[in-house]
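To illustrate the input format used throughout this study, we show a single complete record. The first block contains the structure-token representation of the backbone; no residue identities are included at this stage. The design step must infer an amino acid for every position from geometry alone.
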């Protein structure tokens, strides 16, 4: 868990569909504990775009595709998301300041 939290800025935010934004380290920890206890992902990321806006800010647009395993149900499904990572330099390192994603699976 510490490795995941260390890639975020101290005020990092994850915005997942269907959930309130998780703001700051404690909320991120709770959010990732919920995620990791619910699913396991086997996915490949594709970096579609990286833009460095200045010495302090950048963003990446990505897609993720693969298999999502629901741990409690013992089922799996196709996983296809699009993501935006807004990054900020903190302590001389690029870290995730905001992570926003949504599903690309067709609506049923």
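Output of the design step:
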């Amino acid at each position: 868990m510490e490795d995941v939290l260390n890639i975020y800025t101290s005020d990092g935010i994850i915005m997942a569909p269907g959930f309130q934004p998780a703001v700051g380290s404690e909320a991120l920890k709770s959010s990732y504990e919920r995620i990791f206890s619910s699913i396991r992902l086997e996915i490949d990321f594709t970096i579609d775009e990286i833009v460095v806006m200045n010495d302090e800010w950048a963003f990446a647009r990505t897609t993720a595709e693969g298999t999502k395993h629901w741990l409690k149900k013992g089922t799996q499904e196709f996983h296809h998301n699009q993501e935006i990572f807004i990054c900020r330099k903190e302590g001389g390192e690029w870290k995730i300041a905001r992570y926003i994603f949504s599903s690309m699976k067709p609506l049923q």
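Structural context for interpreting the output: Strands lie at 8-15, 22-23, 39-52, 57-70, 75-90, 93-103. The longest helix spans residues 25-38.
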